[in-house]
Amino acid sequence: MDDGSTGNPHAVPPGSNQPGMIPNKPQTLQDEQSQQNKYSIPGILHFIQHEWARFEMERAHWEVERAELQARIAFLQGERKGQENLKRDLVRRIKMLEYALKQERAKYHKLKYGTELNQGEMRPPTPPSDEERETDSPLSQNSQVTWRQGRQLLRQYLQEIGYSDTILDVRSNRVRTLLGLTPNESTKQDGEAGEVLVNGEQEREARRDADRRPAEKKRAGIPEIDSEASVLATFDFLSSEAVDDEDEENLSDGEEDGGAADDESEDREQRRRREKGKKALVQMMENESLAGMEDVLADPETEEALAEFDFLVSEAGEGAGEAKSTDGAEWGLDKSPTTEEWAMDKNLLNKLKEEFKKERKSKKGAKRPNRSTLQAMLANLGGDDDIVMPAGGPPRTAINNPDLGPLDEPRKEGPRRAVLGVGGPEEESLEAALGLGDLAGLTVTNEAEPLQYDVAATKEAFRKTWNPKYTLRSHFDAVRALAFHPIEPVLITASEDHTLKMWNLQKTVPAKKSASLDVEPIYTFRAHSGPVTCLCVSSNGDQCYSGSTDSTIRCWNIPSPNIDPYDAFDPTVLGQALVGHTDAIWGVTIHSVKQQLLSCSADSTVRLWSLQNKSPLLNTYTAEKDDGAPTSVDFVRCELSQMVAAYSSSVAVLYDLETAQPVAKLDARQGSDSGVSSQINRVVAHPTLPITITAHEDRHIKFFDNNSGKMVNTMVAHLDAVTSLAVDPNGLYLLSGSHDCSIRLWNLDSKTCVQEITSHRKKFDESIFDVAFHPSKPYIASAGADALAKVFV
Amino acid sequence: MVSPKSKMAAATEDPAILRRNRPGTKAQDFYSWPYEPFEEMDSTLAVQQFIQQNIRQDHNNIDKILEPPEGQDEGVWKYEHLRQFCLELNGLAVKLQVNTECNPETCTQMTATEQWIFLCAAHKTPKECPAIDYTRHTLDGAASLLNSNKYFPSRVSIKESSVAKLGSVCRRIYRIFSHAYYHHRNIFDEFENETCLCKRFTVFVTKYNLMSKDNLIVPILEEGPGESEA
């Protein structure tokens, strides 16, 4: 950078106005004078010698110091130049990528819609520095008022985080004594500040450069360069904040402090950086996306601090300028770069506030700040009030030990991370205005939205009313069974049209004139040669099992929820068939811990299958003659060794899985309406309590105590046969479906109906075949004879 | 007896009759209930019920199956039949798929006679899918279209513009028959024996003029149009 040598306050030619020289000359004069005055010669000589020796010593001291500083300056200048080049290179690369992406988008758009995408800013990358300069200029007219306001704000925040005036004073004094600077230093400041005003842009670039350097260093190892860079960008802001505070201090302390300011702030900056490095370490531990900050720690800290040095000096220079602003007209010039920065902040403030609020809700989404964040933060260089770190202790004393207490600050990171995660369309305009790059438009925080939804949804998981949201139409005949994926918003349906279909509820087709969304199936499972009657999904969501009237149970390896519905046929989806039953299968249920499957069939047997063994059939449970055919089966969830099977004779039997002997008979025959078959259509075991719930053809739902075998509750639940039951994962609500076309939600505690939804139409005398709760998300679903499945939220 | 609707339906017959496939029903008893006259069906799915009932009664009686009840809207009638064809074609697709009978190695393209290679229309740009993929994609695409809320929002009345879509569905799914016929004859014969589906389909598209006779290349009818080309 061209201004490198002059931009530094220490770059004054040796001897020109050296502090050591000034007192020295008068002293020699005095020496002669004192000889003329007839004092005691030896005394005078002694005094002179003493004085001279003292001055010489001081001078030597100053000389050494000066040499040191000059060496340092040279080093820093070299460093900065290197970084400048690096930055240019990076910016060029970003621009190129950006351009390439835009062209890709345009191409995609053209292919998709056949029209040219109207991207106003489609242009090949331009040199970044020009652009920055361009955009900075219009902001320079902003008044000093905004600047002052911003400064006030920052001061406030600094205080909040613990940098009180006293601390600042103490520290500045300490630094001053350490450096032993004289008031003369401030004259250098003048020159320096003048440089700053001329070279404001370059200074800022240099800062950014400094920020990017560590990012670049880590590039090889860490993919999340951007997040790191954005962290650094935040640091940048904080540093300027610190400097600003310094300014305020200078105002009160008077002119002589001006010189100290830069060195002091440098010193402090080093400390801050280290502190932040530590915080970043914390962040890193939580989230490796922010890795790379260890650089700041592991790498000699001096290097980092030095990288920051130039920038600090310039800022401090500005600060000094502010302190002196009453003195001379020359300082008026100084304000333009500073004002620019503050004016920018003002513009950003509100938008960022909004985003911050939004992001705070979904911290998860913010964990991985994306590319646009970098740009946003860069745009924010001057900082704004939202990025101030919340809650902080007084400055650390043990700053030199990076291992010390990095863990006690993780709370701070939350909101900050959230801020780092900002991104999205709102920024785009802003970004465009600032001209800092169109990167903000490149990526949209896709993650944030679904996550946000999740957060909101979980809260409302058991609100009072469920509303239809998705209608799943693609089956040609009655949907007999359905089951949710354990985690994803994915549903699998089994139909009398011999197929199963998988639906991703997040891939919706906007439906016209309808409140409910249409979903297209993403996969069709074909292999059964008869109506599919029952279905269950493993708890990891990798497999599902379906039973059919063709007497087979099919294992399916569930394809990815993001599969293309019109992909090539993948034979691996079709797993083995569990063959053994000799008639229609009517129920399957899985125990994921034991990796076992239970099935019941019209051949009057219930069978237990191992999902791992080569010979899968483990056991067969044959009912007594007058029990009828098993209609439904379930594992007893709170007693691993038992299962319950329901029979068409309205008896449910608890079996010991090992011995295949009945443990208890749950007889529902007493008190049922005569005439109408009171067969059990579905049996479910409560997920946590030793309670068995049965759904009957005679409209009843009955509750049994597994231990006593006694019926503990019975109720007429529907207007027609109850066909299906589902208990929510927490065991608080029961969902029932009936051929009366409705599904009902029951409070298991009070046994009262919480909600009724009319859901499906009749085909012959059948309407609803199955209902289900999503194991982890607030969805319920119903399967109907009208070939539809519906999902409610 | 139980719900108002079933009461009405059952009013003229034995009140105990509920046409249900209850859990535990044996496979052979599936859908084995007394015949319900079309006039007594009060469901919105009456046409489907009626068609399925006739097919179950005797799948060889094609004329009866294809004979619409009096006053039946022809669009709905064709639509419901096409749904049923697609449903039953699943059976053929399964047979082709089982034991990799029809796989991407042996049937790299969807062909019947040497005359045409059919391109799969399920993709944005039609492409030469292997026959088994073509079959699956075509059935999935047909399911998607026939269940589309946009074109077929109701199963009681259908817009004329949507009825026009049925022809192309017919043409596409017919290729599954023709591919099976010319490349997997044993499967085709086995399937045809069980269902008479191709024959029924040929009669259906001929009756309702949904496909040009030149395209009916499977010689299934004794004196059918396809015979000349076979």
Automatic annotation (TrEMBL), chain A:
GO terms for cellular component: cytoplasm; FAR/SIN/STRIPAK complex. The keyword Coiled coil applies. One of its GO terms (biological process) is regulation of signal transduction. SMART domains: WD40. Gene3D superfamilies: 1.20.5.300, YVTN repeat-like/Quinoprotein amine dehydrogenase. Residues 59-107 form a coiled coil. WD repeats lie at residues 472-513, 525-558, 578-619, 715-756. Residues 1-36, 113-145, 181-225, 241-279, 318-340 are annotated as: Disordered. It holds the Pfam family Striatin. InterPro entries: Striatin_N, WD40/YVTN_repeat-like_dom_sf, WD40_PAC1, WD40_repeat_CS, WD40_repeat_dom_sf, WD40_rpt, WD_repeat_striatin. It is found in: Cytoplasm. Residues 15-36 have a biased composition (Polar residues). Residues 41-168 form the Striatin N-terminal domain. GO terms for molecular function: calmodulin binding; protein-macromolecule adaptor activity. Keywords: Calmodulin-binding, Coiled coil, Cytoplasm, Phosphoprotein, Repeat, WD repeat. The keyword Coiled coil applies. Residues 242-267 have a biased composition (Acidic residues). Residues 201-221 have a biased composition (Basic and acidic residues). It comes from the Eukaryota. PANTHER family: CONNECTOR OF KINASE TO AP-1, ISOFORM E, STRIATIN. Belongs to the WD repeat striatin family. This is Striatin-3-like isoform X1.
TrEMBL record, chain B:
It comes from Branchiostoma floridae. GO terms for cellular component: cytoplasm. InterPro entries: MOB_kinase_act_fam, MOB_kinase_act_sf. This is MOB-like protein phocein isoform X1. Zn(2+) binds at residues 102, 107, 179, 184. Pfam families: Mob1_phocein (PF03637). The gene is LOC118423928. SUPFAM superfamilies: Mob1/phocein. The keyword Zinc applies. Residues 1-22 are annotated as: Disordered. Keywords: Metal-binding, Zinc.
